[in-house]
Design goal:
Blueprint lengths: L1 H21 L14 E4 L4 E5 L4 E10 H5 L31 E4 L10 H7 L5 E4 L1 H22 L1 E9 L17 E8 L5 E8 L11 E2 L1 H8 L9 H7 L9
Antiparallel strand pairs: 1-2, 2-3, 3-6, 4-5, 6-7, 7-8, 8-9
Length: 247
């Protein structure tokens, strides 16, 4: 009987958290601490770092419904973020550096309205990525996550750069170049599950599953606490998961 009661309580918690999640494209309860500036967009939210001159995390809900809507054409119109008035990053800062202007909230996930597409090209959503990463392993991971969203219906995603403190800087700027990038994924559709990726900022032919890790590991590396408002028992269990095959 106790087992059934625990199961019922868990399902109720999942339902309540999913209801909260569905009420907003980027609910506050999952925002990590540690950013200098919180910016909320139509399709995503981000935590911006003045020190790093880029977001240290972005989060959003990726839904089957939005992926299946009539898609807005990719704009490719990079521009400085109008809400960052102190030392804003400009698109030309990347020119002739050998680095791509890599999206954190992918443009391909923001195709469902003109504004979501437009805002994904603000430079606050951009990090320096080597072409081999941006057009290779990072793109493959993003494609995999979209397949999961189509299958599961709705996913909560947090992604960002990883710094080790000794990074080179971009061209003639003081923008540090991340050594790697993380992506944390929460599926609140039963069976509830989590998975995370850490991908290096260089080209690799290794398959996507080679870069799977736990949310615990991403938190250890970044210092962020991603899902602090989840039930503690549930959070501890989910953040230890790294089963690619479960998805």
């Amino acid at each position: 009987m106790k087992k059934y009661i625990r199961t019922a309580i868990l399902l109720l918690l999942v339902f309540l958290m999913w209801s909260s999640l569905a009420a907003s494209d980027h609910p506050h309860y999952t925002f990590p601490a540690g950013a200098d500036l919180l910016l909320e967009r139509e399709g995503f939210a981000l935590g911006y770092s003045y020190k790093h001159r880029q977001a240290v995390w972005v989060c959003y809900v990726l839904t089957r419904e939005n992926l299946l809507k009539e898609q807005v054409k990719r704009l490719n119109k990079f521009q400085s973020d109008p809400e960052i008035t102190y030392d804003p990053v400009r698109p030309e800062d990347y020119r002739k550096t050998g680095y791509d202007r890599g999206h954190l909230a992918p443009a391909a996930d923001m195709t469902y309205t003109f504004n979501t597409m437009l805002q994904s090209f603000f430079m606050s959503n951009i990090s320096p990525q080597l072409p081999g990463c941006n057009r290779g392993i990072w793109k493959r991971i993003e494609n995999q996550v979209r397949k999961w969203a189509l299958k599961e219906g709705s996913l909560y995603i947090i992604t960002g750069p990883i710094f080790n403190g000794g990074e080179k800087t971009l061209g003639q700027t003081d923008i540090p170049i991340p050594t790697a990038f993380y992506k944390v994924i929460l599926d609140l559709t039963p069976p509830v599950k989590m998975v995370a990726f850490i991908a290096p900022n260089y080209g690799t032919k290794k398959r996507v599953h080679s870069f799977v890790t736990t949310v615990d590991e991403v938190e250890k590396i970044t210092g962020f606490d991603f899902f602090s408002d989840l039930d503690d028992t549930l959070e501890v269990r989910l953040e230890k998961e790294s089963d690619f095959s479960a998805w």
